[in-house]
Amino acid sequence: MTLDFTSRNAIDPQAAAAMDTERLRANFHIGGLFRPGRVSLTYTHYDRMVVGGAMPDGGTLELPAVKPMGTAGFLDRRELVVVNVGGAGTVTVSGEAHRLGTRDMLYVGLGETVSFASDDAAMPAKFYLLSAPAHRKCPTVRIGIDQAKRLDLGSAETSNERSIFQFTTTIETCQLVAGMTQLAKGSVWNTMPAHVHDRRMEAYLYFDLPDDARVFHFMGEPAETRHLVIANEEAILSPPWSIHSGCGTASYAFIWAMAGDNVDYTDVDKVHLGDMR
Description:
It catalyses: 5-dehydro-4-deoxy-D-glucuronate = 3-deoxy-D-glycero-2,5-hexodiulosonate. By secondary structure, this protein is mainly β. Helices cover 5% and strands 44% of the residues.
């Protein structure tokens, strides 16, 4: 068996406010995404988002369905975004191979079968997986990092100079919205000032972080914030009611993905810094 599987129930803000660090991590933190020769999947009850990873180490890894889906195949009623954060590899979609270098993305539509392979087992691919239910089939599309829509935001003066690479704004999806943010050297803050979007949940994967560095990820309602300490290649689930912001002890990158009622990237409710506690 090459599958590691967990599931997470949805947590309301009042329950989260009463949690200690261990319980917060048990409900919102996802580790162990990239294990050699394995697929790791976490099925969440936030918009039925699945967050996972696949790390082929010489053979081929198939993407299996898990029990909560109630389907024979993983994508029988779903869509999928794959982002490679490791060495070069191939994602095969219903017999058609798509090569992904580091930071390249592949969108896969409803009804397909998917498998993963690395070009070199000594430098394996690390495929980050994001999936949400889909009601119609959209075309499978590969988007290289050089093809993503780029927005440069922030400044060195506020320690949040960053480039946002929007993967899905130029293609057709049902409900997945995904992209990557790269912080400039010397910048450490992301998504600050903070916001919430009650219409969509979000997931973060922090990567390109030195082994001895950490990101302090801030979550919770604006007037009742909490934090979790995150290492390289670990993920966070962000409920629709929660802010999602982070500050690192070094520069880093992160992949963000959303699923919910709309695909409008700019549809957010901004939080004034003076209202945060």
